[in-house]
Design brief:
- The complex is a heterodimer of chains A (about 325) and B (about 210).
- Chain A has a single domain, classed as Oxidoreductase, molybdopterin-binding domain (Sulfite Oxidase, Chain A, domain 2, Alpha-Beta Complex), CATH 3.90.420.
- Chain A has nine helices and 13 strands.
- In chain A, strand 8 and strand 9 form a beta hairpin.
- The longest helix of chain A has 18 residues.
- The relative contact order of chain B is 0.12.
- Classes of the chains: A alpha+beta (about 325), B mainly alpha (about 210).
- Chains A and B meet through loops of A and helix 1, helix 2 and helix 4 of B.
Chain lengths: ~325, ~210
């Protein structure tokens, strides 16, 4: 793993030092809160402590190409502590703080990705080999959840299009299908059939080739924490967050549109396209506005999450109301 | 001292305010996680449903435990439920909708799960307004009929919670099951025995310093 080799120890601030300080602050806050905590899942500090443990298991990433202007949102970044403790990753539990609590069960090393279907170079590829040919790039993107909240996250990854080109799709490759790891021991949320596991997502090949589409291996300059989809996840910033599948073990190129998990679960509510669109409401809530994590009030949601200039052309002539 | 006596009732009222106080303290102290608005919305709604269900437990519990006076807690518990529901709605209207009444109208007309929650709150409102001793005395038999609205309200509230869930129905399912059980007990209770004279009970409840009804 050449490019995600850790920095030398003496180049990095001793993490136990600053974690120690934060733990102290948290504990003084805990002292103020006594009984009744189990009834307040949002209030427990346990999740945060575990999340910090999980963050500390990530490693700093080196040799990252900084994001050029077109891949860099000029808005304040969401604090790392929020982005790593407020997660929808049902494989690790359905509560927002469950993934941070359960992430330690996921063994993201060693990892391999199965590439199959309409490609010239299929195979079961160890993650290091999968990543080696590509320089790591930083991308600072908005993330818009279908639940009407959003974040701004500095990702580290490799453009999906570059990876696909290297795998050489055949002329029949019209779609890319992705699958998350299926292992209820590592992903205890899979013990309950909340969704039809394994989690599946997919893109049209032209969407996958768009330079915005990223295969992320890190965030905030470090490898991905488990709760954010370690060690490899998709980031498709113009679509609702559920399209950005986590902990990917399988990439399949195929001619037919793949079945996708949320669409299978509730086809009226979650489409295959799932482009961020303030004008098309979810059946149970409006998508016109969103709460940026950290804000008390909501702000207007932008068409294609603000990336219309780069992606609207992919959907020219398409009825976005029908193809939500 | 009996279970329904005034000091006990005051204790229940104070205990009922504790979750709200914790929630407020956690909000001020930034201990509600990344999305405090969502946390307050969720917690206030859930506490409203909890107190509503608790208030409905009093009558069957009184019968089974033979603890007369338990039903005198219904008013406190019902008012707590209404209070948490009102906070739930206020947070939604202010922080979620930013007092955009057009958006409220759109939600109420186009999103049945929100309309149902709103209807539950509307159902509780006249009950809260007629919970005073004066109102009970004044309305007499009609008070009893009016307060059957609580069955509709708990039914709507349980559906509202269930319908708000994305995929994991476990927790709202448990509440809905409990609500269904309590409603079923009323039906069975009515069929199996002489109906209780709730108006008389309510009048007794209203008499200051009176013992058990």
């Amino acid at each position: 793993m050449r490019r995600i080799a850790p920095l030398l120890d003496n180049q990095v601030t001793d993490e136990s030092l600053y974690l120690g300080r934060r733990t102290f602050l948290k504990n003084s806050a805990t002292a103020a809160l006594v009984a009744g905590l189990p009834l307040f899942p949002g209030c427990g500090n346990d999740g945060n402590a575990k999340a910090e443990a999980a963050i500390s298991e990530t490693r700093p990433l080196a040799e990252i190409t900084p994001a050029p202007a077109r891949f860099r949102v000029d808005e304040p970044q969401t604090p790392e502590s929020d982005a790593t403790t407020y997660n929808n990753f049902y494989e690790m539990g359905t509560g927002k703080d469950d993934p941070a609590r359960n992430a330690h069960l996921l063994r993201s090393e060693p990892w391999s990705v199965t590439v199959e279907g309409e490609v010239a170079r299929p195979g079961v590829i160890p993650l290091e080999d999968f990543l080696r040919p590509h320089p790591l790039e930083e991308r600072i993107y908005r993330l818009r959840c279908v639940e009407a909240w959003s974040m701004v996250i500095p990702w580290v990854g490799i453009p999906l299009g570059d990876v696909l080109r290297r795998l050489e799709p055949t002329s029949k490759a019209k779609y890319v299908a992705f699958e998350t790891l299926l292992d209820p021991e590592q992903l205890p949320g899979q013990k309950r059939r909340v969704l039809d596991w394994p989690y599946r997502e997919g893109l049209r090949i032209d969407e996958a080739m768009n330079p915005l589409a990223l295969l992320a291996v890190g965030m905030y300059g470090r490898t991905l924490p488990g709760q954010n989809g370690a060690p490899l996840r998709l980031v498709v910033p113009w679509k609702y967050g559920f399209k950005s599948i986590k902990s990917i073990v399988r990439i399949r190129l195929q001619e037919e549109e793949p079945a996708t998990s949320w669409n299978l679960s509730a086809p009226r509510e979650y489409g295959f396209n799932a482009n961020v669109n303030p004008e098309v409401s979810h059946p149970r809530w409006s998508q016109a506005r969103e709460r940026r994590i950290g804000d008390w009030s909501k702000r207007p949601t932008l068409p294609f999450n603000g990336y219309a200039e780069q992606v609207a052309g992919l959907y020219a002539g398409m009825d976005l109301r029908r193809n939500f | 001292m009996k279970v329904g006596d005034r000091p006990v009732r005051i204790g229940v009222a104070i205990a009922g305010l504790v979750p709200g106080a914790f929630l407020a303290a956690a909000a001020v102290g930034d201990r509600l996680g990344a999305d405090p608005v969502e946390a307050i919305l969720h917690e206030s709604g859930e506490w409203a449903l909890r107190f509503l269900l608790l208030s409905l437990c009093m009558t069957p519990l009184q019968r089974w435990l033979g603890a007369p006076g338990l039903i005198r807690h219904r008013r406190t518990l019902g008012l707590l439920a209404f209070g948490y529901a009102a906070i739930h709605f206020s947070i939604y209207l202010s922080l979620d909708l930013g007092f955009d009444f057009g958006a409220l109208a759109e939600d109420l007309t186009e999103r049945p799960f929100i309309a149902i929650g709103f209807a539950a709150l509307l159902g509780l409102t006249p009950l809260a307004l007629t919970s005073s001793r004066r109102a009970i005395r004044k309305l007499g038999k009609r008070w009893q009929r009016l307060h059957r609205l609580v069955y509709l309200a708990v039914f709507l509230a349980a559906i509202h919670f269930l319908w708000s869930a994305k995929a994991d129905l476990l927790e709202p399912g448990i509440y809905a099951g409990f609500a269904a059980l309590l409603l079923a007990l009323r039906v069975v209770g009515r069929a199996g025995q002489k109906p209780a004279d709730y108006a008389r009970l309510a009048r007794a409840e209203a008499r200051p310093g009176s013992g058990q009804p």
